[in-house]
Design goal:
The chain is mostly beta strands. Helix content is about 10%, strand content about 35%. The strands form 3 sheets. Strands 1, 2, 3, 4, 5, 6, 7, 8, 10, 11, 13 and 16 form a 12-stranded mixed sheet that branches. A 4-stranded antiparallel sheet has the order 15-14-17-18, with no helix packed on it. The model has no long low-confidence stretch (mean pLDDT about 95).
Length: about 270
């Protein structure tokens, strides 16, 4: 099932994507009104036969595919080719860090670049959303935008990762019963130029391994979001004389097979 959230009366509301339009789940009494509620319930059966009301997708303002979650966690250096381009050894354990909730952003949302950073980088990522029973509920696309000079200023990455809107996810979330995150084509483009082109089978730690590792230390809850790392091709891995950091006006697209293309313009 392909799901999304859109703004309705000022709040994120749950929808089901179909070729005919978006089914407004929140219009049905007794059903989950948000993705977070659905992650907690975990039962898709009640949604399987809904037929309406249908909304034209082009009329909707997208919201992040899940909101109100407790945690946004990320894995650093989790693609073999990316570790190689950065000249680093493969990690023995997932290198976990977090983005704060203010970093959450939606498909098509304009992202304002900070005044305090110049080395702005993109990171196309497979993102999973937790369900109940320590299982993946759904997969989506994410862009772990980063301010590299602040990320690298200390051993702690938080200040380079949690600027406002620096964690867009979407446009859709595809439930794990319909999509296997283990071998998905993933790409990023800047102003239409291909920058990253890889497959999630290059992940060092799979979503299952990440969940098992994290749960022993930080129990994951339904709705929690985990960015799984980025493939090679980010500006951080380019030679110094070839780096082209993101600028106002740039359009960054992250395409994940089976999910769609997450698009954001920087301002």
């Amino acid at each position: 099932m392909k799901l999304l959230q859109f703004m309705k009366e000022g709040v994120p509301s749950l929808g089901i994507w179909t070729m005919a339009g978006v089914i407004d789940v929140s219009a049905h009494a007794g059903l989950p009104r948000t993705m977070l509620e659905l992650c907690r319930v975990g039962d898709l059966a009640a949604l399987a036969h809904l037929t309406g009301p249908l909304l034209p997708e082009e009329s909707l303002t997208f919201a992040p595919v899940v909101t109100g979650m407790e945690k946004m966690l990320c894995v650093g250096l989790n693609y073999r080719a990316h570790a190689k381009e950065c000249g680093m050894e493969l990690p023995k354990f997932p290198a976990m860090f977090n983005k704060l909730p203010n970093a959450l952003a939606a498909h098509k949302q304009a992202i304002r670049l900070p005044r305090t950073g110049r080395e702005i980088d993109y990171e196309a990522e497979l993102v999973f959303i937790m369900g109940s029973g320590n299982q993946v509920f759904a997969y989506t696309a994410g862009n772990d935008l980063s301010v590299r000079e602040w990320q690298c200023a200390t051993s702690q990455w938080l200040c380079g990762k949690s600027y406002d809107s620096f964690g867009p996810i979407g446009p859709y979330a595809v439930t794990a019963d319909c999509l296997d995150g283990g071998k998905l084509h993933i790409q990023s483009r800047v102003n239409g130029e291909l920058r990253q082109d890889s497959c999630t089978d290059d992940l060092i730690f799979t979503p299952r391994q990440i969940i098992d590792y994290v749960n022993e230390r930080i129990p994951l809850k339904p709705g929690d979001v985990v960015f799984t790392g980025t493939p090679s091709g980010v500006m951080m891995g380019y030679p110094a004389d070839q780096k082209r950091w993101l600028q106002p006006g740039d359009v960054v697209e992250v395409t994940l097979e089976g999910v769609g293309t997450l698009r954001n313009q920087l301002i």
